[in-house]
Amino acid sequence: MKTIIKQQLLTALLLMGLYTGQAQALVFTTNGIITSGFDATGVFGAANVDLTGLAYTQTFELDPTQYVEQITTSIQHWGRGSLVAGTATETITVNGLTQSYLLDLTQSNSGQFALVNGLTQGLVGGSVGVDQASQNQIGYTTDGQSLIINMSVYSYANPLNIGLSYTQIWSYSPQAGDVNDTWFRISGPDGTTQFWGTPSFISINAATAATAVPEPIGLVLLALGLIGLGMHRKFLLKASFMSDALHFVQHL
Predict the structure, then answer these.
(1) DSSP bridge partners of 102
(2) 124, 202, 201: which is closest to 157 by C-alpha?
(3) Fewest CB within a 10 Å sphere: which of 73, 122, 198, 222?
(4) Average pLDDT for consecutive 10-residue bins of the chain (252 residues)?
(5) How would you write the chain as a 3-class SS string?
């Protein structure tokens, strides 16, 4: 019986490991103030409104491993070209109103997600002594609008203390000497709404890290594991679940 339960638990853990290993969803977020912008189509309220001076939050969620070209060296990790699979969602909040746009990957699109950390690694000068985190994308939404986004920060002066992993949790507040900007443009039959902004905070995956929940398959496997444990009659007869669980594991 113990051998069977061990095998079930090991299988569940292996499947969970394989599944989470495949997950590459990345959330790139910037917050800041709009330096110039105009809402011609009423995306964020009334039409024909100046957006200058308003606070914004921009988030792009994608799987950067789905760019057709991947470039990896000791100081950089890039995905670029066309996104060919997965999903890509732009979410933008201005003036208290939030809009989301799903990129249609069956249409032509082009973009890149770049991580560079030469400065963080202590390199100085030329093309190596720079840190960068950037995302830009051009394409069409599923409702037929043209979408252009750009979010970036790079610096030859201040280490961003950033890694090269797509799954890292990282955040940064730009400093003097950094170059940081945001651009958002959505254009449809009724006109174009766009703005430029200066990010005051930039993050990768950090925006959702505190509220992360287990993947559905992980919950299913966990439930199956508990059912398997429940089949052990001696385990069910114990008074304390936690103490008996520890006792059970120790004696497998």
Answers:
(1) 89
(2) 124
(3) 122
(4) 49 41 78 96 94 97 96 96 95 95 96 97 91 97 97 96 96 95 94 95 74 42 45 42 41 44
(5) CHHHHHHHHHHHHHHHHHHHHHCCCEEEEEEEEEEEEEECCCCCCCCCEECCCCEEEEEEEECHHHEEEEEECCCEEEEEEEECCCCCEEEEEECCEEEEEEECCCCCCEEEEEEEECCCCCCCCCCCCCEEEEEEEEEEECCCCEEEEEEEEEECCCCCCCCCCCCCCEEECCCCCEEEEEEEEEEECCEEEEEEEEEEEEEEEHHHHCCCCCCHHHHHHHHHHHHHHHCCHHHHCCCCHHHHHHHHHHCC
pLDDT at 229 (0 to 100): 42
Q: Are 149 and 183 in contact (CB under 8 A)?
A: yes
Q: What is the pTM of this model?
A: 0.73
Angle between helices 216-230 and 2-22 (to 10 degrees): 170
Give backbone dihedrals phi and psi of 67, rounded to 5 degrees, phi first. Answer: -70, 145
* Model pLDDT, residue 132: 97
Report which of 171, 166, 29, 185 is spatially closest to residue 86, judged by C-alpha positions: 166
Assigned token pair, 44? 């964020």
Beta bridge partners of 130: none
What is the separation of C-alpha 140 from the centre of its chain, rounded to a whole number of angstroms? 20
The one-letter code for the residue type at 118 is: G
* pLDDT for position 127: 84
